[in-house]
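Here is one chain, start to finish.
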Amino acid sequence: MNQNPTKHTKVLIIGSGPAGYTAAVYAARAMLKPILVYGIEPGGQLSTTTDVENYPGFADVIQGPWLMEQMKDQAKTVGTELIEDHIASVNLKSSPFEAIGDSGQKYTADSIIISTGAQARWLNIESEQKFRGFGVSACATCDGFFFKDKTVAVVGGGNAAVEEAMFLTKFASKVQLIHRRDSLRAEKMLQNKLMANKKIEIIWDSVVEEVIGENEPKNVKGLKIKNVKTNKIDELKVDGLFVAIGHDPATQLFKDQLDMDKEGYLTTKPDSTETNIPGVFAAGDVKDKIFRQAVTAAGMGCMAALEAEKFLSH
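Its structure:
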């Protein structure tokens, strides 16, 4: 254990994507001297996203990691204390709130902004990770545009997978939906729309075994898929793969302390980032499973900082 004295702050921000950094910028400019603790993946999901074309303010394509670096520097410049540590436990019943890092460092805070984000679930096959960002994606709204007139595959069977497949038909000439069972989990209305779409072909009872591609330049050429009933292996020619098997919000830390929905997303009051504990706010993908965009996360980070400032002034 390191014996550093306890660090106290008016605003402790946990997590460092667009939500956390934006909250830090607003809190710092309100003279609240926030501390932002970022873990092993500063910048969150955007650090693994290459081309970003939908963040307002940039006419040219920008890189996700670069955008996060800029937000980080901005937060620092306006007066945020940035600490690399991993928050291992929190006590939201104590006053002030307490958090303890893996480093042994203890933090106390008058208010907390949680922006720990979420992670896409992946198939966890080596070839998928190899081509991540080079034809393999977990976000159709982010990357669909790059597949104009091409063939793409979507893996999954829930609402998200069906919505992604439908969205991709705006760009792709053909979309193949690969599902490991013989029926979809998505709601009936969505399924009907899907079945009616001529561009979509459903491949039932199948799992992706391997992503096939080239190394120079890195791109996806196809997939090896296996029929789980017959064990037959087929090759599909596709230019891209979208994995839509869900997201996991990083909320383990807050189990039994904060209200969350059945999937583990933190719940907040309508039009607010306020959780069920006054003084604790949640922003970005940790509470938002609908929009999941950098700009909406940043917007919520701003809301959280303004709400924290108001909370502290009472």
